[in-house]
Design brief:
This protein is 55% helix and 13% strand. With 213 residues, the protein is an alpha/beta fold. Helix 3 links the parallel strand 3 and strand 4. The radius of gyration is 17 Å and the shape is globular. The N and C termini lie far apart (44 Å).
Length: 213
């Protein structure tokens, strides 16, 4: 029987090693990667069945990575593994197309089940936040993510890189676009979000989980 092919994305080397050791006896771990951009590249090359993805990663965070993965590889199952017990992150992850949400503190007891549920076409939510997540959807004040509604995929990526301390010139090199294009996107983001300064943009990115501090 063909083994399920898994890729793991996390920016902490020790965590990657631990997850590899946990999953290798049960699945074929085809790669481990340190950021969202590398994850997308390796998925194109290796075509795994399941991706285990940290929410907070450099260059492209896990939630944005899932959105792109599901557009190009809709059948690939994405399971989020994170330190964040915040239901806002979980809600955004599932809206992006994730099949599971597991906290790192519960990885040894829950990750295998989350993968199995995903492969069966079901959704897994860690019991540690399941109640809060359900309540957030029952709440009539639950609003659609402002980042999703007002910013493009490219703008979200540029916003994350600004928040990580990249300059417009460095972002241009990273994304193979001109510095002027980066600055144009920055202006449009500030306009769309009603923000006035670069610092406001960075604070917005942190508040909405594009980058952690």
């Amino acid at each position: 029987m063909k083994r399920v092919r898994v890729i793991i994305a996390d920016d902490h080397k020790i965590m990657l090693e631990g997850l590899h050791g946990l999953l290798a006896p049960h699945f074929e771990v085809v790669a481990t990667v340190p950021d969202g951009v590398a994850l997308l590249e390796e998925i194109e090359r290796l075509e795994p069945d399941v991706a285990i993805i940290d929410v907070s990663m450099p260059r492209l965070n896990g939630i944005e990575a899932v959105k792109r993965i599901k557009k190009s590889h809709p059948h690939l199952k994405c399971v989020m593994l994170t330190m964040h017990p915040d239901v806002t992150y979980a809600s955004r992850a599932f809206e992006a197309g994730a099949s599971g949400y597991v906290l790192k503190q519960a990885a040894t007891s829950e990750l295998m089940r989350a993968i199995e549920e995903a492969l069966e076409g079901r959704t897994y939510v860690t019991p540690l936040i399941a109640g809060g997540l359900l309540e957030s959807y029952r709440n009539p004040d639950h609003a659609q993510d402002v980042i999703t509604t007002k910013l493009t995929d490219r703008q979200r990526q540029i916003l994350q890189l600004f928040a990580e301390g990249f300059s417009a010139k460095e972002i241009g090199r990273e994304l193979a676009i001109s510095q002027r294009t980066v600055e144009f996107h920055k202006y449009r983001m500030m306009e769309a979000l009603n923000l006035k300064t670069h610092a406001d943009l960075v604070r917005f990115a942190v508040k909405h989980g594009l980058v952690t501090v």
